[in-house]
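Reminder to self: tokens first, then the designed residues, so the page reads top to bottom the way the pipeline ran.
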């Protein structure tokens, strides 16, 4: 059944709980933001497409979710789908982006390409922890439950992620390694990285980070 048929069959937001049509509408309106979440978690274009489609499938299964929580639930299904598909605790290192992934990065605004590239270079577990905790604002406790690990592992992984991101960002801006080793510079770096990336990572809005003339996917 097409999305238009679903919308005719069910009136979105006609009751307290979100309908399949509501979720289909959310995935259409917020496609750029939800796909970017999939892309950052999966680490590749092919993986992001699988994650995005799985998120849609899970969202429309008929769970009793209040309408006002529907957008948060859609993002959560993306995260849960990514964890199930890619098992980040069991996965190892990220390699050089394949051509399709590189082309996807090139479609991002120039100001965010470096940040996204740096996130994709994180090992899978560190990348998931960073996206979930720093960008999606999940607590360490919630991250530990979803990822199947102790909270201290989440804290340690986020620290490693911030250190690697800081090193990559500073190297790419041609700043010296000596400046990175400076304790004061390092302590001030973590929040600046987080805020810079978050500026482009639009959560729970339909605007996304991309121009409608240059969609990230397909």
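Designed residues (218 positions):
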């Amino acid at each position: 059944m097409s999305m238009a048929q679903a919308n005719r069959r069910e009136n979105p937001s006609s009751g307290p709980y979100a309908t399949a049509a509501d979720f289909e509408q959310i995935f259409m309106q917020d496609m750029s933001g939800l796909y970017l979440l999939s892309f950052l978690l999966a680490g590749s274009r092919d993986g992001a497409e699988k994650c995005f489609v799985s998120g849609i499938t899970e969202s429309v299964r008929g769970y009793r979710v209040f309408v006002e929580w529907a957008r948060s639930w859609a993002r959560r299904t993306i995260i849960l789908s990514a964890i199930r598909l890619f098992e980040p605790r069991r996965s190892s290192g990220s390699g050089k982006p394949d051509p399709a992934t590189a082309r996807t990065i090139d479609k991002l605004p120039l100001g965010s390409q470096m940040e996204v590239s740096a996130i994709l270079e994180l090992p899978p577990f560190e990348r998931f922890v960073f996206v979930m905790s720093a960008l999606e604002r999940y607590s360490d406790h919630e991250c530990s439950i979803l990822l199947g690990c102790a909270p201290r592992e989440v804290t340690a992984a986020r620290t490693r992620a911030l250190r690697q991101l800081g090193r990559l960002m500073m190297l790419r801006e041609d700043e010296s390694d000596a400046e990175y080793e400076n304790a004061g510079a390092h302590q001030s770096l973590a929040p600046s990285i987080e805020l810079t990336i978050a500026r482009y990572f639009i959560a729970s809005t339909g605007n996304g980070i991309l121009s409608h003339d240059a969609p990230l996917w397909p």
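The two ends are 21 Å apart (CA to CA).
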